[in-house]
Structures are given as C-alpha cells and as structure tokens.
Design brief:
The chain is of the alpha/beta class and about 250 residues long. The chain folds into two domains: about 120 residues, 3-Layer(aba) Sandwich (Rossmann fold), CATH 3.40.50.720; about 90 residues, Alpha-Beta Plaits (2-Layer Sandwich). The chain contains seven helices and eleven strands. The strands form two sheets. Strands 3-2-1-4-5-6 form a six-stranded parallel beta sheet, with helices on both faces. A five-stranded antiparallel beta sheet has the order 7-8-11-9-10.
C-alpha cells in the first residue's frame, strides 16, 4: 500500500555563523520548509554567503555576547546550530553562552578531534557534535578500502555498512518482485523504503519494482556494488559492457 510521506512540523531554527557548513544545513532546512534565522557578526559575510536566500532572516550579532543572544530570544528557537568555520574560541564561548541561557537543542560543528573533546568537556554530548572533515574522511577511506564504485553516492556509513539512494533503471528488474530478484531484506542489506510518484512506502518480498522507483538502501560493503548495479544497471565501460552481478 502506498503511503504519504509525513510532512515535518514547521519549526524555527537559529544558525550561528554563516560558514560553508552552515550553508549546507540552511539549504536542507529550507528544502523541508523550515523557518531559519542566521546570526553572524560580519554583515559582509552575511550578505555574500546568503545573497541567494531571500526567505531567511539575517541578524548581525556577536554570538560571544551572552546578553545579545538573550535579547534576540535565542532560547525560543526549536534548535540552534553553531556553525562557525574557523575560530574555535568563538565556537566554545558561544556554546557556553547557550548552555548558560538554558538552550536545550544545540548542534555544534567541531573543527577537529581536539575541538570535539573540548565541546564534550563543557557539556555537549556526542550526538550534538558534528565533525564534517571526519565524516568525509571516513567515507573516502571506506570507498578506497572496500572498492566502492565511484558512481554510488554514499549517504552515510557505519562500520562496514553504507546507505545510499538508488534509482531503478535496469530493465531486467522492471515489473519483478523483490523475492524474484533475490532482494528480500537480509543481514547483509535492507531496502529501507521506496519512493514512487512522490509517495513513500515500505516494501516487502511481494513488492514489484518499477522504472524510476527511488530506493533507499542500507548494505554491507562487500555487496553494495552488486546490489546497486543490479537495481540501476551497470554503465558500460569503454569498448566493453560489464556483466550484471547478483548478490548471493
């Protein structure tokens, strides 16, 4: 049965620091129709980095000034992201200010492992700290170690498992069930959901794949290439066409 994807409740988020990291967060929040206010003490940086975002509020503010944060009702936001790009001191003082003001839902970017450790020492927990370079480095290293195809867009990784989104393009799987295709969920892989014509549903062994279905997949490193190639088809290399592989 097809199910409508739940629409997230509209919330109001504060982004402290108009960094490259913050821009990615902002874009994601806007795509999900959330309200965003960006605070930065540099007007030029606000204007330059956010010139394409007319729908967000921009406030010139020094986040290391606790009184300024309080006057701008920082505690009223549903979530606060500390996204400063270069200065660790600014990040740490800002987080301390937020904690002092009783802000609960804080997510902070960490520049490196040392920064992460200090953020934990002053009161944040692991799931409140994001280290973009570490995440990117882990993904690159995993690609190299496990020979993951460069055409596979890795969304996230956990130990020896990876998640990705695959579009059904291989004609040999059209109108066939997951059971017939030997794609029933197992300990090695899991088809989490399928998006079809704008609707999302949870598959079972009798689900029939259709062209342009968008599949969210979680799979072990040793079979992810085979699973993806089976679903989307293997692009031909120069002078030859690679044969399809079927997971055991």
């Amino acid at each position: 049965m097809l199910r409508f994807e739940p629409v997230p409740r509209k919330k109001n988020f504060a982004i402290l620091g108009a960094s490259n990291f913050s821009l990615v967060v902002i874009q994601t929040l806007l795509e999900k129709r959330q309200k965003v206010t960006v605070f930065d003490n540099d007007k030029q940086r606000l204007d330059l980095n956010l010139s394409d975002y007319d729908q967000i509020d921009k406030v010139i503010l020094d986040a290391t000034n606790k009184s300024a944060l309080e006057k701008n009702a920082i505690k009223s936001f549903d979530g606060v992201v500390v996204g400063f790009g270069s200065t660790m001191e600014t990040s740490l003082i800002t987080v301390l200010n937020l904690l002092d003001l009783g802000v609960k839902n804080i997510i902070s970017r960490a520049r490196d492992e040392r920064h992460r450790r200090i953020l934990k020492a002053i009161g944040l927990v692991d799931n409140q700290i994001i280290t973009p370079d570490a995440i990117a480095g882990n993904t690159v290293g995993s690609r190299l170690v496990y020979d993951i195809d460069v055409n596979i867009d890795i969304q996230s990784s956990s130990d020896d498992y990876f998640s990705t989104v695959v579009v059904v393009k291989n004609p040999s799987v059209f109108s066939r069930t997951l059971d017939e295709l030997n794609l029933v969920n197992s300990k090695d892989f899991n088809i989490i959901q399928i998006r079809r014509a704008g609707k999302v549903f949870l598959p079972d062994e009798n689900t029939i794949l259709k062209e342009d279905d968008i599949i969210t997949l979680f799979a072990a490193s040793n079979i992810i290439n085979d699973i993806v190639n089976k679903i989307q088809g293997t692009p031909p290399t120069s002078n030859e066409t690679r044969t399809e592989k079927t997971p055991v």
